[in-house]
Specification:
Blueprint lengths: L7 E3 L3 E7 L7 E13 L5 E5 L4 E7 L3 E13 L1 H10 L3 E5 L2 E5 L14 E11 L3 E6 L4 E7 L5 E5 L4 E7 L1 E6 L4 E5 L5 E6 L4 E4 L4 E6 L4 E6 L2 E6 L4 E5 L7 E6 L4 E6 L5 E6 L4 E3 L3 E3 L5 E5 L4 E6 L4 E6 L15
Parallel strand pairs: 4-8, 4-10, 5-9, 5-11, 10-12, 11-13, 12-14, 13-15, 14-16, 15-17, 16-18, 17-19, 18-20, 19-21, 20-22, 21-23, 22-28, 23-29, 24-28, 25-29
Antiparallel strand pairs: 1-3, 2-3, 3-6, 6-9, 7-8, 24-27, 26-27
Amino acid sequence: MRPRSITPRTAPVVIVVLLCLGAGPVSAAQREYSGTETFAAPDGTRVVIDSASVDLKLRTADVPEVEVATELRISGVGEERAERFIASHMPTTEVSDGRITFTINPGRMGFLGLGTLTARTRLGFLLPSHVTPDITTTGGAISIRGDLPNASPLYLRTSTGDMDFVGATAAVDIRSASGDARLELFRPLETFFARTSSGNLSLSGGAREVHADTASGSVWMDNLSGNAEVVTSTGKLTLAWDRLEPENRVVVRSDSGRIHLTIPEGVSPRGSLRTIGGNLRSDFPGTVNDAGDTITLAGDGPEIMIESASGDVVLEAGTWWGGTSSEGDSSTD
């Protein structure tokens, strides 16, 4: 059977050009561009987006095509430079079998002129749920809303832009230099991979397997249900599980950040907790060595290995509704 082609359809484009007199002998120009395009997207289409410093907003819907909306506006500069700004921020599109690639490469605009400069660039995507996005920015923020069940993984990469995902997908792969990442999930991920230099990570809604590595960013994850390996140099680590099976393994390491883990009460963990310069606390049975820097857990269930060079380490028993055994009960005599 011949593969289905992916063909773009362009909607009407609106371009507004306003010239206004500036304070000097050279006129200031205002340029606005607003346009949409649609692209056929059969099942399994990969949507690759590289938007440099432009902010992205994506949303899934019950639609058969990819729709792209571009809004550009600049004012307070010379006419020639305003034209250059619009031209350089227009996305280019490459369509091939099973893949649509959108690229914005504004490059260096140089000195844009004196006076009041206002520039706005927005790029939005309405996506069918059966596509797989692959997104890269340098400084642009990424915002995604919706269900992407075929994305395994959903790739999100940025240098300094923040990332925000509310919805569901099979797996997520995040790479960031300093941008923060926040995920609010409707169902647990099968796998979550994240590597950042200084950006913070936040995940709620769960994952069955986690690999996260950050140099100085803090990590907060809730509703986990399986293996995890989380490493940081100076960031604070706060992790909580809804479920841990005897065959699961959890490894958490930090040079100086505080580590706080909450696992379900009734679990019988084995492994060890160790810190050189911090304090140790565990709600689970175990023995403390003579130096007082290591607790060896006495259970026969999932393996928990926690190590911090100078931060405090807490292993807490909790419940799925957020209560902990350390809170005690509210009964009175």
